[in-house]
Design brief:
This protein has about 160 residues and is of the alpha+beta class. It has four helices and six strands. The chain has one domain: Nuclear Transport Factor 2, Chain: A. The chain has a six-stranded mixed β-sheet with strand order 2-1-6-5-4-3. Helix 2 runs antiparallel to helix 3.
Amino acid sequence: MNDIKMNRCLFKLKFIPNGLCNSILLLLFIPIVLSCSKQTVADPSEVLNREQQRVEFLTLNDFRQLSELLSPTMTYTHSNAVIENKQQFLDELESGRLVYRNLNHQDIQIRFVNPDVAILTGITDVSSTVEEQEVEVPLRFTIVYVNYDGQWLFEAWHSVRRPE
């Protein structure tokens, strides 16, 4: 029939009794289990403060400091479906073709996919100037922040117009 017998201990050694072998394995796996269960809890206020800084730098045209808050892999999807990377977005702002005068965020919800990825959703009223035309746009947005080496960086913006 079946000549193979299964032992309870994975590493059965002739000189280690079965109960002791199981104890050794248990002691080896405890640190692994504990390290997996130790997830740090992210602080929502850090991400919200970072978003307030981003809005402040954006509306004050402080593009140098704004740039430091943006991830190198950032994407910005405008409500008209234009998608820009970090450099394109900064170039557009620095050219003066697009000027953000005010962003009034409301009803912000934040959730963490893991301790290093935050997703913010909410609504905002944007006051801007686009090619010298003043524009008021009510938006619904999704923002992604990613924690890189202890620093929350703006990774993505996606917005759609909401009914007025």
